[in-house]
Each structure stands twice: as C-alpha cells, then as structure tokens.
Amino acid sequence: MPAYRLLDWQQPGFAEVPVPEPGPGDVRVRVAGVGLCHSDVLFLDSPAGVLPYDVPFTLGHEIAGWVDEVGTEVDDLAAGDAVAVACMSPCGMCRYCVRGADNYCVDNWRGRGFGRDGGLATFIVARRKELVPLGSLDPAVAAPLTDAGATSYHAVQRVRPKLRDDSTVVVIGVGGLGAYAVQWLRLQTTARIVAVEAREVRMKAAETLGAHEVLLAGDGLSRRLREAVGPDGADAVLDFVGTDQTLNAAIRNAATLGSVAIVGQGFGTAPVRWGQLAHDCDVFIPQGATIAELHEVVALAQPRTSTGGVTIEVEQFAFADTPTAYARLRDGSLNGRAVVLPAG
Ligand code: NAD
Ligand code: ZN
Q: Which of 28, 178, 190, 232 is most buried as measured by Cβ atoms within 10 A of its Cβ?
C-alpha cells in the first residue's frame, strides 16, 4: 500500500509498504482522514540525532477511518464502522497509566506518526482500546478531534477548576488546537474568552467560534491584553503558540490563583520572578490527552440540537497532494485543519 513517510531525516516522500495485519485484540482501519498538525513540522524539519526515533516511519497522527478487519478477541466492532484512532499506545501498567494519566505513559515518547507508523497510508492497525467509535461523525472530517480536539480539551479540563462564573480566559493562537479550546470553553464554562491571533482570517474564525473579544498579536501584546482582561488578570491563559512574546504576555496577565498552560511548541522563554507571575498561579506544559478524554471529545462533537455539537473546520486534500497540504500548513495559509484523504 502507498504511505507518506519520513524516509530519512528531513526527507519525506511516498513509498510502498506492506499492508499491516491485525493480531489478537487488534483492528485494521482503512484510513479516511488524517489531520496535519503543526507538530508535524518539527518531525519534518529535525535533522538526524535530535528526536529519539528511528526512520523510516509513516507520518500522520490525527487519524480516523472505517474498520476494515477485526482480529480475534474483538467482537464489538464490525467492518465499515467509523472510528477515531488515538495517537498513543499506552501500556496500561506504568505508574502514569494506572493513575488514569495514560497521555504520560512511559511508552508515549513515541506514537503514531512520530517514531511508529502513522495514518498517512491506506491502512493502519491499532489495538481495540485505542479506537473510539465515531457514531454519526464522518471520519474524513473528524480526524482532527484525535489531537487538535483532544489535546486542547485536556488543557481546558486542567484549568477548569481555576475558573469561576465571572472568569476571563485567554486563548492565544486560534489555529488547529485553539479553535477547539474556544469551543470547549464555550460548551463547558461561562468564562469570557479573549482570543489572540496573528492572522485576520483566524481572528474572524475565533469570533465565529465563540470568542467574546479578539486581539491582533504583535507589538504591545502584554499591555493590550491587560486592558482586555482587566486589572485582576485572567484566571487561565492557554498559549497555543509559545514564543517569547506570547509566553511573556501569558505569564504577566494570569491572575492570582490562576493558571497558564503552555501548549504551543514555540520554544520561547519568559522570566518568572516575584512581581511578574501572580501568587499561587500554576504554569504547566500539558501534552496530548487521555483516551478517556478522546471519548468525551467524540461525545461532545456529536451533532446535537441542544448544543449544536462542535464546528470541525477542515480543508481536505487528496492523498497525492500531501506535500502541498504540508506546505500550506507551514506557510500559514490554511483556514481550518488540513485533512488528507488516503482512501480517496
Ligand atoms: P496551527 O498552525 O494550526 O495554529 C497556530 C495558530 O496560531 C495559527 O492560527 C496562527 O495564525 C496563530 N499564531 C501564530 N503566531 C501567533 C502569535 N504570535 N500570536 C497569536 N497567534 C499566532 O497549529 P496547531 O496545530 O494548532 O498547533 C499549535 C501548537 O501546539 C504548535 O506549536 C504545536 O506544535 C503544538 N502542539 C502541542 C501539543 C501538545 O501535546 N502540547 C499537541 C499538538 C500540537
Ligand atoms: Zn503506561
């Protein structure tokens, strides 16, 4: 079958690979959609020796599709069922897994599309427990829920205990992940949402998705953010960018007893000292989401009349156009997650 792989470091391309066979407890999925995540750029750009993986491997970690064949011991899924595929394969036994924090499983230093074969191929095999039935959602659209949706959901759950009825939450970067953060906050909290974006088209999207106020990124961000959130600061700041400028604005505008989630891998830094970070304010770097959280995300995203479900913004690309889709992700010209369609 064809696959889009990291053939060698900094050398992505198409290659033929064997069709994977499901073992006991496994399911083979025909891949309908693969969302391209900004973290893929890190995998594509890293020279040899930087990341702890062996090449080659198939790229793509936001995966959804249809059940193709079930292995022995799997009796609750049938061919044709639509499923989301979790990014990770947690062991279930390590000290993090047994605490229900399987996103930090000791085996999760690699996952589908980074160190193990990912979804940019006709088929993928996963363990049954790593699949979440999609119900009425179309897997060619819903794939980004597995990371953009779930990772932002995890970050929102972490800050929720910090929020009060009249809280303000700042969301910096309303791209793939941030677009869902705004929506989870609207669905699950009463917070006033102040979004920050660098592109006008995404400022508009932030407003459409539910942000109450949207600021343009750039000069004077920290000061402008303080005017927008008020003198007490924001009870939570979710930074999906993570550059020096956004981190400084985040740290300086979080409230006493508040929290700052650094989700974006901009690798920026910000000084933290008395007078710069509010008292008892937590700063943390979350990664991914648990499989249980992916179940919650898929449940919340079902089209429902009471909430209207969730808006999944996608720009779909034919499998052969995967390099173009990555180029569009890189040059920042996408308005919605790029989703590649390996099944055509
Ligand atoms: P994306 O490219 O879809 O979205 C980023 C958005 O931020 C874009 O809309 C862009 O216009 C905007 N932006 C860029 N610079 C900005 C600035 N200075 N201020 C405000 N907005 C700005 O990216 P994504 O796929 O949503 O990923 C976001 C970040 O999260 C990336 O750094 C990615 O590596 C990281 N990530 C982290 C995890 C995790 O587990 N922690 C998981 C997935 C992705
Ligand atoms: Zn584990």
A: 178
Same domain, 47 and 168: no
CA 257 to chain centroid: 26
3-state secondary structure 163-201: CCCCCEEEEECCCHHHHHHHHHHHHHCCCEEEEEECCHH
Residues with CB under 6 A from ligand 1: 37-39, 147-148, 151, 172-178, 196-199, 202, 217, 240-243, 246, 263-266, 286-288, 332
pLDDT tens string 285-313: 999 999 999 999 999 999 875 656 799 99
Q: State how far the alpha carbon of 134 is from the alpha carbons of 65, 78, 141, 144, in Å.
A: 9, 13, 11, 12
Q: Tell me 315's DSSP state.
A: E
Provide the CATH number for the domain around residue 67: 3.90.180.10
Closest Cα to atom 23 of ligand 1:
38
Number of structural domains found in the chain: 2
pTM equals 0.97
